[in-house]
């Protein structure tokens, strides 16, 4: 990870392959309302040699083809934790770390029964309730004095993008994703681009039609967390307690991807309890479960698909390690393994036609550039909806005062009154 991060966006960075599809700008407009742009015959593929942004051409779609993103790793600054927040058992917000848990290392062969308590000690979060960016916005309001821009006065925050880590993870994995598309709503408000996911019809249908087995298997990951986490630095895990998935501890980090200043938040499973461990996010630990690996084919699939998701999720906030519990078909954890995020790219090197971190990061970077160029109107109630389906380009459409608007009035009011509150 450190090796990747030390690279800066050098001169060849913008001059190599680019995925922008460009066409002539119609009088400076690069969007229209409530219409989706589709690739059309006037579009042509941008070729290396003419740097993006140099002409009057504007792009209306973005390709996700892997080969277009195989260039030097972009600058990704070491993420810095600028705060954190907690959500309690009833999903109430607290501007503190009360839900942070401590990792307690289990035996190598722990025999944890992940099915235990599913029927009688499980309180599941209602995933039909869409919280959008609300918790992050609450954190921003509670900490706004820390966050004022030192440069532009029209820009309320010192960030180009505010979003969830999970949304960025989806962007990182897009060039390799073959099954699930996504929708991302973006609003420019006081210069900052707020990016919030919208559930696709397909994913809503899947959520509403999960099998009992699938529902139970979703519990297993949380149960594993309960077996391996303690509530305080000196206590031990309590596998007899209730698993309540409303509870969460979230880190808020700031970083930069090439010229994009990012502020995002992500849930953190637990931390190293050693008081001499590195400062957050260096002390954080991501917990995962996965089916045990018994054949070379299973190992290959694990490298190609699972490690991509694990790497993307933890690399973004600078979480250095994933502790995995491998379970059998009955949901019993039979072995444990720790993966250092910085070593995952070496681990997959021998895998034929495998994913590449540089493709993930360059695609994300180009997508953010695309968003910056498209989302020009600064208005709390205008949403640019970016849409992607596997084997297609990214397209967008624009909505005004629609069902997609997601910045709450309380946030807009707080951020607009900020000038008068400043000392
Ligand atoms: P696993 O990670 O062991 O799969 P996270 O790992 O991101 O902290 O998420 C914790 C657990 O939430 C997961 O454990 C899994 O049980 C459940 N989960 C998260 N995202 C999921 C998804 N998209 N589909 C099914 N389960 C999910
Ligand atoms: Mg986890």
From TrEMBL:
<dbReference type="GO" id="GO:0046872">
    <property type="term" value="F:metal ion binding"/>
</dbReference>
<dbReference type="GO" id="GO:0034353">
    <property type="term" value="F:mRNA 5'-diphosphatase activity"/>
</dbReference>
<feature type="region of interest" description="Disordered">
    <location>
        <begin position="1"/>
        <end position="62"/>
    </location>
</feature>
<dbReference type="GO" id="GO:0000956">
    <property type="term" value="P:nuclear-transcribed mRNA catabolic process"/>
</dbReference>
<dbReference type="GO" id="GO:0005634">
    <property type="term" value="C:nucleus"/>
</dbReference>
<dbReference type="InterPro" id="IPR039039">
    <property type="entry name" value="RAI1-like_fam"/>
</dbReference>
<dbReference type="GO" id="GO:0005829">
    <property type="term" value="C:cytosol"/>
</dbReference>
<dbReference type="Pfam" id="PF08652">
    <property type="entry name" value="RAI1"/>
</dbReference>
<feature type="compositionally biased region" description="Basic and acidic residues">
    <location>
        <begin position="20"/>
        <end position="36"/>
    </location>
</feature>
<dbReference type="GO" id="GO:0004518">
    <property type="term" value="F:nuclease activity"/>
</dbReference>
<keyword id="KW-0694">RNA-binding</keyword>
<keyword id="KW-0479">Metal-binding</keyword>
<dbReference type="GO" id="GO:0110155">
    <property type="term" value="P:NAD-cap decapping"/>
</dbReference>
<feature type="domain" description="RAI1-like">
    <location>
        <begin position="77"/>
        <end position="412"/>
    </location>
</feature>
<protein>
    <recommendedName>
        <fullName>Decapping nuclease</fullName>
        <ecNumber>3.6.1.-</ecNumber>
    </recommendedName>
</protein>
<feature type="compositionally biased region" description="Polar residues">
    <location>
        <begin position="52"/>
        <end position="62"/>
    </location>
</feature>
<comment type="function">
    <text>Decapping enzyme for NAD-capped RNAs: specifically hydrolyzes the nicotinamide adenine dinucleotide (NAD) cap from a subset of RNAs by removing the entire NAD moiety from the 5'-end of an NAD-capped RNA.</text>
</comment>
<keyword id="KW-0540">Nuclease</keyword>
<keyword id="KW-0378">Hydrolase</keyword>
<keyword id="KW-0460">Magnesium</keyword>
<dbReference type="GO" id="GO:0000166">
    <property type="term" value="F:nucleotide binding"/>
</dbReference>
<dbReference type="InterPro" id="IPR013961">
    <property type="entry name" value="RAI1"/>
</dbReference>
<keyword id="KW-0539">Nucleus</keyword>
<keyword id="KW-0547">Nucleotide-binding</keyword>
<dbReference type="GO" id="GO:0003723">
    <property type="term" value="F:RNA binding"/>
</dbReference>
<comment type="similarity">
    <text>Belongs to the DXO/Dom3Z family.</text>
</comment>
């Amino acid at each position: 990870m450190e090796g990747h991060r030390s690279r800066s966006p050098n001169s060849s960075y913008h001059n190599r392959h680019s995925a922008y599809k460009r066409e002539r700008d119609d009088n400076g407009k690069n969007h229209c309302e409530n219409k989706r742009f589709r690739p059309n015959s006037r579009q042509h593929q941008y070729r290396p040699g003419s740097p993006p942004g140099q002409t009057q051409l504007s792009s209306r779609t973005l390709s996700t083809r892997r080969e277009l993103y195989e260039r030097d790793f972009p600058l990704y600054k070491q993420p810095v934790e600028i705060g954190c927040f907690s959500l309690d058992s009833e999903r109430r917000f607290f501007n503190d770390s009360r839900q942070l848990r401590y990792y307690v290392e289990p035996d190598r062969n722990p025999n944890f029964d992940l099915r235990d308590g599913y029927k009688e000690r499980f309180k599941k979060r209602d995933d039909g309730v869409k919280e959008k960016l609300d918790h992050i916005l609450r954190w921003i309001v509670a900490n706004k004095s820390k966050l004022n821009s030192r440069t532009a006065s029209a820009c309320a925050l010192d960030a180009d993008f505010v979003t969830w880590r999970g949304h960025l993870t989806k962007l990182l994995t897009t060039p390799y994703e073959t099954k699930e598309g996504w929708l991302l709503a973006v609003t420019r408000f006081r210069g900052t681009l707020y990016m919030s996911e919208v559930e696709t019809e397909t994913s809503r249908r899947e959520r509403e039609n999960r099998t009992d087995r699938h529902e139970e298997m979703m519990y297993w990951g949380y149960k594993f967390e309960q077996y391996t986490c303690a509530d305080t630095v000196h206590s031990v895990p309590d596998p007899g307690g209730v698993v309540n998935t409303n509870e969460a501890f979230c880190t808020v980090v700031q970083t930069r991807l090439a010229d994009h200043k990012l502020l995002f938040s992500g849930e953190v499973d637990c931390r190293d309890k050693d008081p001499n461990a590195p400062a957050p996010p260096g002390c954080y630990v991501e917990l995962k479960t996965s089916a045990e690996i018994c054949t070379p084919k299973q190992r290959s699939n694990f490298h190609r698909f699972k490690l991509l998701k694990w790497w993307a999720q933890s690399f973004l906030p600078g979480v250095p390690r994933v502790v995995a519990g491998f379970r059998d078909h009955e949901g019993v954890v039979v072995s444990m393994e720790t993966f250092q995020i910085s070593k995952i790219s070496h681990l997959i090197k021998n895998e034929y036609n495998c994913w590449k971190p540089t493709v993930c990061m360059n695609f994300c970077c180009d997508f953010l550039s695309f968003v910056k160029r498209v989302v020009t109107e600064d208005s709390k109630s205008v949403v640019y909806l970016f849409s992607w389906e596997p084997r297609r380009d990214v397209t967008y459409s624009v909505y005004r005062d629609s069902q997609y608007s997601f910045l709450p009035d309380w946030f807009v009011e707080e951020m607009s009154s900020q000038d008068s509150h400043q000392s």
